[in-house]
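Re: the multi-chain job from yesterday

Posting the exact lines I submitted so nobody has to dig through the queue logs.
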Amino acid sequence: MTFALETATSPEKLRRVAIDPVSRVEGHGKVTILLDDNHKVHQVRLHIVEFRGFEKFIQGRPYWEVPVMVQRLCGICPVSHHLAASKALDMMLGIKQLTPTAEKIRRLMHAGQILQSHALHFFHLSSPDLLFGFGSDMATRNIVGVVAAHPEVAKKGVLLRKYGQEVIRMTAGKRVHGTGSIPGGVNKSLSAEERALLLKDAYQMVAWSREAVGIIRGLFEQNLAQYNAFGRFRSAGMCLVGADGAMDLYHGGLRARDADGKTLFDHFDYSRYWDVIGEDVKPWSYMKFPFFKSLGTEDGSYRVGPLSRVTMCDHIPTPLADKAREDFLAFDGGSATGATLGYHWARMIEMLHAAETIKDLLHDDDITGGDLIATGTRQERGVGVIEAPRGTLIHHYRVDEHDQVIRANLIVSTTHNNQAMNTAVREVAMQYLDGVEITEGLLNHIEIAIRAFDPCLSCATHALGQMPLELAIVGADGTVIDEATRDHRGLIRDVS
Amino acid sequence: MKTSDNEVSAQANAREARVKADRPAEAKTSDNEVSAQANAREARVKADRPAEAKETPTFLLDGEEISFTPGQTIIQAATAHGVYIPHLCWHPEFKAHGSCKMCTVKVNGRFGSSCTMAAQAGMTVENRTTELDDKRRTLLQMYFVEGNHFCPSCEKSGNCSLQATAYELKMVSPHFDMFYPDRAVDASHPDILLDFNRCIMCSLCVTASREVDGKNVFSMGGRGLLGRRIHISSESGKLADTDFAATDRAASICPVGVILPKRKGFAIPIGERKYDKLPINRQVTEVTP
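And the result, structure tokens for all chains:
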């Protein structure tokens, strides 16, 4: 099954514009656009061209090594892989309930992760586009420009992220790639000093997160028509929810709704995720295309992440974030809940929820407890699902009687969003690129659509807010007509 | 088939008995010889310098005067004084193996292994000079590229002598191309995991199993850089088919991440691991590992 603009009927007669790489590191990807002589768009694809191979080289390794090894998939949200793997191995060890200390330390670690990742994405990566305008001067469209023009906003973004990283360090042992979560529980709880240190700034983080929700709301109010229409498309969605239907980013059952909001499944036991989710393969991408089996490969594509979670949960179990959710749903008749840029708003609501969760957990004495590990009756396999910053993350392992992993399957958040990102990119290409000469500012529109999903392949831009790009326009006969590069400083150079 | 197995087993037992019978005599002779040579050297030293005969002999280690008991090696004397000489295959409980060359020092201007070279009165020994540490760093880099040492996901990280030595010698990159050798993981034993990807051929497990546990579970075999490896002394070559136990001395002797207790990995949080607390050069007098 193919989508409109996925495959052109006569590609040999078209010019090919390639954005390659979309970024330098994590999630190397590229965008290709096929145009005819009148600049009309015929085909748009977001390709994920790297091959990591974690599922293969984890085979044969001892299971207790897995949570530490697989988190190396990512340098931005490693805690998500660390926890999803740990949860899968809890199940493999037959553990139905962690000790209260272990469960709360893991939840605290995860909230730290959500806070730092969402802050990083919004302030460092996306705020330059949103504050300065999509096609604004590229010389200032970066975090340095934000620091110069909006120093208070930039400072709060940096400190929010730093605080989240400190929460991770104190629960996992390191800011990035720690070892705190182990199969069956955790290897440390908080000391009284660590708890006091984090508590000192906890309320400030809640206040700044509220302000961030206000910033993105203000941007929607100022640019309502543009924000609502940009890359908008109808889509099904999926997320975890708690037993009471509340947002729960650490644990729950799977909830899915189609594009009309009709429930496809709810509180579904994720240990049999393959009963409801299939994975399609396309010859032009290394990344699979998951779909709801009940709807098929085309209608069954869906989106995950903040927008799905905030719009599909029944409520958020922290008061300020829940109020922010209600405001978001009520805004302009709910128009922002279907907008691709609504992801940013939903993301800030989740950041507020994470800040409130951290504050609440820091007041819970269990986080300084000493009972860290639970035991159970060993099973052959385990599935762990968590709501990572970017969406639903599934880890699935089989372990043999010698404690070695014999099979691993990972469906990461960005993979769930593969079709959704392709659709958004096509929508933007049709809205802004169809029939016009391509400029840097227009190219940035493509990236803004990709960035809204905060995919892992945007990692490189987390530093400077500019994706390095190589652009080649190739004639129908295969000759290169024009080439341009944009380096990490955002400078465009004509190399033809 | 059963008969055949029994025959093989009987042969193995007989071999084992012979080895055991031979070993003490060999060791004794060897020790006596070494001791006799050392005594003779000591006697000559005393004869040369009669005025110092009654004083404790000393040598200079990086300018510091180190006293020693005759018969001690340079590294034994240095360790007794809390002075760190980088090493990997040497362990204070066992006779020196002298294979890793990390403990190489300069004695009166000439290179020598401080784990095998007897301390002698009046010698001048260079240890932590730029020249020697540069060579040690190069050796370390070779160790890292010869095996598959991936500290980021290794459960021995923070408790590993190889990693701690690399930090001590400020090794920041492997420098050489990685060999990526194809080495086995033996998970057959219920309590112990063997991951030979990280083996540095120090032979401490061979020695501990033979001399302390009396089992001969491990032996060194094969030839060449990639052919040489630790063998398991069972017909199947699997640890499960030996009488190895988690309580054996050999089970806790590995300085790197080869011999590991199962299901314990990462139980110690970052910050509380052995070398998180103090760098290796300040844990000289503690028995490692």
